[in-house]
């Protein structure tokens, strides 16, 4: 089923040939994060692709993956380009190393999952929350519901995890 | 410059010095060109043909690159009365110039044509802005873009910044070190009458400008302009009779990618860029190394891109890029100036071709716009780099252009004075 939706006034769409992306976002809509696992070498991959980047197999199965990890890097956007985001600046785009499969298959590989910093109910984080997050911050996945079959995975501060004393943040506020 | 003794001249690498850039041309760098990209492209290609001392009938190949924001080669060729034996318009932005030079060499080598004009024409301010404002940001977010644009992660600055920030985290690179790139390029631009921004700015000016997206201040970002640029590539044998000394092409690499280029952040270290891979092709092809280079053209869409590429191509040790770009090395008068035109940060934005044009003129020893012309018609360079002064690099023999598409993709080219 093709999906057409609005998010923050921004049109989002997925046509029905987008088999991999439709499956990915359907699991997100169920608030149950899944990634493709290669049917041959078992390695997970992100974002959805059409073959395994390590063994070229076209066969994969969707497996549940715990949405927990640490911020690997980020950008804090003050000048939004898309009209939809102008009312929400500053906002964070996070690149998060999942705990699962970290450093595999080589030490430099990780499942680095993109998302905004959000509140636990999936709304873009307020400025005082943005200031608390930097490289090393432990985060957990939450979801922003957009439409039937489409939710965006997002990140929020993991209050149950041991946090670094001081996450690394860009030195100029 | 003789070939190093250990070079295998039976390898295809012996294309080195066999091709040359014999003509360069550009339009003005403006905001509000008041004309189509077709008109801009025609203007720049015409200037390059005239600069080479050629006639339209001498050009039989044409290449261009664009991102759905420009005209196509047949329109330019038609307008100028050029009959083509080969043309191709490719999809691409930054890092395309150097890669297309390699393609031009290949098609000439294959006997498909003899002389190729390469152009880039764009109304980068008044029509399609690279930053993504206007028309580009109104396009529906679909397919794989849902993993980026749906997060307000769209413009080049937004997309590259995780690499920039991680370099600061991994190596202690400071905002002031990187801001020195803008200060330096602005000093160069103050000696370039063609530059869109000719005013010198300081490191403090950069750091005081507003944050766009961390770690980028407004002045860490390049200008958006309307312009076209063109270069003419032909065989070194044909280049001998040209109007100018040819810029001989020593070697090219392009568009070299990091692993997982569909989303390169999946593979680290993310503070390393494609230059790490491209340098393994570039320097052996060129038969020279970083120490042999007199002037660089490291792509400056952002201050950080200049620094990251100079570092990963080996002009300094890994992690010491911040030091390299802030210690005077890259200034006119320094050991190895970068972007003597002012580059994308100050001269104008052309997706890399203006930096190649600048280095061709450096190698001709004819880059100056200010020094007095002697009775022989040649500039008498003062090598005084004060504001409004000279910008010719003394005894310039070898140049390196380092093109950037994004952290995961880059191209490069080494040229020498013919």
Average residue-wise pLDDT of chain A? 96
CATH topology of chain B: Peroxisomal Thiolase, Chain A, domain 1
Structural domain count of chain B: 1
- Summed over residues and divided by their number, the pLDDT of chain B gives a mean of 95
Give the number of DSSP strands of chain B.
Answer: 12
Low-confidence stretches of chain B: none
What percent strand of chain B? Answer: 15-25%
Oligomeric state of shown chains = heterodimer
Describe what this molecule looks like in 3D.
The complex is a heterodimer of chains A (173) and B (418). With 173 residues, chain A is mostly beta strands. Helices cover 9% and strands 36% of the residues of chain A. Chain A has one domain (15-157). Chain A has helices at 19-29, 127-130; strands at residues 3-7, 10-14, 34-38, 44-45, 60-64, 68-77, 91-98, 112-116, 138-147, 150-157. In chain A, a hairpin with a 5-residue loop joins β3 (34-38) and β4. The longest helix of chain A is centred in the N-terminal third of the chain and has 11 residues, at 19-29. With 418 residues, chain B is of the alpha/beta class. Chain B has twelve helices and twelve strands. Chain B has a nine-stranded mixed beta sheet with strand order 3-2-4-8-1-9-12-11-10. In chain B, a hairpin with a 2-residue loop joins β6 and β7 (216-217). Chains A and B meet through β2, β6, β7 and β8 of A and β5, α4 and β6 of B. β2 (10-14) of chain A pairs parallel with β5 (141-142) of chain B, so a sheet runs across the interface.
């Amino acid at each position: 089923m093709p999906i057409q939706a609005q998010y923050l006034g921004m049109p989002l769409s997925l046509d029905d040939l987008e088999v991999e992306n439709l499956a990915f976002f359907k699991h997100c809509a169920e608030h149950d994060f899944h990634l493709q696992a290669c049917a041959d070498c078992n390695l997970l991959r992100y974002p959805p692709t059409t073959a395994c980047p390590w063994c070229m197999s076209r066969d994969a199965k969707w497996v549940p993956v715990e949405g927990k990890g640490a911020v690997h890097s980020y950008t804090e956007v003050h000048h939004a380009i898309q009209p939809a985001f102008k009312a929400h600046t500053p906002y964070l785009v996070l690149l998060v190393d999942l705990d699962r499969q970290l450093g595999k298959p080589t030490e430099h590989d990780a499942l680095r999952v993109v998302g905004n910093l959000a509140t636990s109910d999936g709304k873009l984080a307020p400025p005082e929350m943005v200031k608390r997050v930097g490289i090393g911050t432990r985060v957990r996945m939450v979801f922003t519901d957009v439409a039937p079959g489409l939710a965006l995975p997002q990140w929020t501060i993991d209050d149950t995890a041991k946090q670094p004393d001081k996450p690394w943040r860009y030195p100029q506020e | 410059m003789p070939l190093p003794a250990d070079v295998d001249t039976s390898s295809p690498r012996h294309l080195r010095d066999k091709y040359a850039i014999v003509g360069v041309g550009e339009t003005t760098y403006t905001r509000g060109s008041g004309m189509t990209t077709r008109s801009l492209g025609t203007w720049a290609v015409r200037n390059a043909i005239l600069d080479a001392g050629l006639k339209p009938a001498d050009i039989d190949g044409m290449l261009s690159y664009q991102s759905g924001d420009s005209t196509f080669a047949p329109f330019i060729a038609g307008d100028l009365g050029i009959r083509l034996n080969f043309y191709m318009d490719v999809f691409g932005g930054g890092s395309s110039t150097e890669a297309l030079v390699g393609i031009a060499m290949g098609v000439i080598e294959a006997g498909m044509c003899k002389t190729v004009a390469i152009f880039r024409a764009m109304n980068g301010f008044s029509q399609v802005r690279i930053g993504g404002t206007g028309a580009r940001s109104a396009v529906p977010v679909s397919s794989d873009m849902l993993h980026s644009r749906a997060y307000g992660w769209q413009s080049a600055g937004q997309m590259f910044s995780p690499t920039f920030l991680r370099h600061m985290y991994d190596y202690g690179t400071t905002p002031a070190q990187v801001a020195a790139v803008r200060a330096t390029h602005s000093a160069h631009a103050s000696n370039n009458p063609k530059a869109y921004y000719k005013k010198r700015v300081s490191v403090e000016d950069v750091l005081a400008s507003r944050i766009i997206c961390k770690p980028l201040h407004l002045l860490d970002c390049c200008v958006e302009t309307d312009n076209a640029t063109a270069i003419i590539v032909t065989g070194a044998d044909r280049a001998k009779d040209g109007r100018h000394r040819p810029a001989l092409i020593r070697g090219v690499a392009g568009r070299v990618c990091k692993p997982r280029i569909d989303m390169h952040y999946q593979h680290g270290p993310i503070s390393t860029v494609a230059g790490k891979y491209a340098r393994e092709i570039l320097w052996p092809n060129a038969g020279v190394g970083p120490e042999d280079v007199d002037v660089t053209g490291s792509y400056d869409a952002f201050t950080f891109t200049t620094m990251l590429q100079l570092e990963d191509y080996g002009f300094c040790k890994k992690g010491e890029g911040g030091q390299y770009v802030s210690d005077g090395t890259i200034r006119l008068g320094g050991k190895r100036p970068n972007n003597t035109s002012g580059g994308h940060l100050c001269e104008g934005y052309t997706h890399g071709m203006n930096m190649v044009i600048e280095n061709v003129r450096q190698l001709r020893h004819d880059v100056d716009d200010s020094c007095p012309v002697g009775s022989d018609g040649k500039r008498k360079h003062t090598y005084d780099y004060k504001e409004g002064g000279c910008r010719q690099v003394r005894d310039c023999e070898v140049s390196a252009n380092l093109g950037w598409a994004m952290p995961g993709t880059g191209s490069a080219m080494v040229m020498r004075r013919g």
